[in-house]
Amino acid sequence: MRKEQIRIILVDDHKLVRQSWKMLLENNPRMEVVADCENGSTAIEQAQKLSPDIILVDINMSPDNGFVITEKLVQMMPSLKIIGLSANNQPKYASRMMELGAKGYLTKTSSLEEINHGINEVHEGRFYICNEIKRHLPPSE
After folding, report:
1. Cross-strand pairs, 10
2. In this predicted structure, what is the pLDDT of residue 139?
3. Is 0.85 topped by the overall pTM?
C-alpha cells in the first residue's frame, strides 16, 4: 500500500534556507512542499488556502517569530500539525513550542534521516523532539 503524500508548508525568512529545505524534503517521494513562506502572515494565508499536513516553522524570524506564528496558527486551525525548526538547540525553545501547540521540534542540524522520521511521526499523530534536544533535557523521573 502506497502511503499518501505528506503536504508541507515551510516558513523561514531566509529564501536560501527555504530552497534548501524544499530540495531536501522533496528527495523523499512521500513529501511535497506545497508552499514556502517568508513570514507569518503569508504562512497563515497559505495554511488556510492549502490545508497542509505539516507546517515547519522557523523560530527566529521577524516581524513575528515562530512562537507567535505557531500560536496564531493553532488558534485558527487546531488540527494543524506544526513542527518548530531552529538553529537553537535549547530545550526551552522546544518546550515553549510544544506549550503553544506544536507537535514536534527539529534543529537545523538534525540529520535528513531524523528530519524525515520526525515529520512522519508527527504526521501519524505522535509528538517528536529531535535527539539533539533530548540530550539536553533533564532526565524524567
Report:
1. 36, 56
2. 65
3. yes
